[in-house]
Write a structure and sequence with these properties.
This protein is 27% helix and 34% strand. The chain is an alpha+beta fold.
């Protein structure tokens, strides 16, 4: 079973089991805490980085030592949507350009 299918099935099952977790039309959104917990338990992924999309949405990247990865968009209300998943993550050292640096 592919990782993308497993992630979709997880979110769909979570939405069916929890009245508070309302999935969007694609079935890829749920409470951030639930998604983060599942990423850790099921795929051994932890947050590797984040950046602001705008003042209400954060882009987050979760990766595992085995190379699986997930990209989330999380809002200020605690809702997250899975944007993409994959395999073969490589983490070169990147320094963020800070204003005034």
């Amino acid at each position: 079973m592919t990782r993308r299918l497993m992630a979709t099935m997880f979110v769909a099952a979570m939405a069916m089991c929890s009245g508070a977790a309302q999935a969007n039309a694609a079935g890829q959104c749920a409470a951030r805490a639930d998604i983060v917990k599942a990423l850790g338990e099921n795929f051994h992924e932890s947050e590797a980085g984040r950046g602001l999309i705008n003042r209400n949405v954060v882009l987050e990247v979760f990766v595992s030592e085995q190379g699986s990865w997930t990209v989330l968009a999380s809002d200020t209300k605690g809702q997250s949507c899975i944007l993409s998943v994959g395999e073969g993550w490589d983490s070169p050292t990147i320094k963020a350009a800070l204003p005034g640096a």
